[in-house]
Fold:
Amino acid sequence: MPAVVGEDGIARCPWGAGDPVSTAYHDTEWGMRVSGEAAHLERLTLEAFQSGLSWLTILNKRPHFRAAFADFDADTVAAFDESDVERLMADTGIVRNRRKVDAAIANARATVALRERGGLESFIWSFRPEPGPAPHTTGDVPTTSPESVALAKALKKLGFAHVGPTTMYALMEAIGLVDDHLEGCHRRGCATTLP
Structure:
């Protein structure tokens, strides 16, 4: 499916042309460079929680995720213990999946450890691929790439969990490492590039 023109006359990727929450995310955030450790840990965590679910479900729960995970402050989440896990598992505002909760805590701990190697942000961005051609339809958008496979493998080696190649490709799209806004979408080319 190609880019679609909404009632407002603006062309968007089809997934961003439906409900207002998805439209706002598409128009103001998806594919844009984020900055800082917490922003990268948040995106990584939310992509892991999204696995098997609708992204809209995660977007609607995002304020609860931020509250539950201390705005994704890696030091705070890394210090979570079993009582925090029980608190999270009782929190109806987030996705209550024990493996994903455990992974979020493990990933915060791995993020803290990764500071010795330059930090999460620079590590993720070191897997940035060369820009590719604009996809014309949703069918042209891949779900993995050699870079997402390599990133997933490297993160797992560092102790990260729930970071498979598909999840990491979604992360790369979300934070602007790749620009998968469709040809004709008003956000195509919006990603902030590295200096």
In short: DSSP finds nine helices and two strands in the chain. Residues 48 and 162 are 6 Å apart (CA to CA).
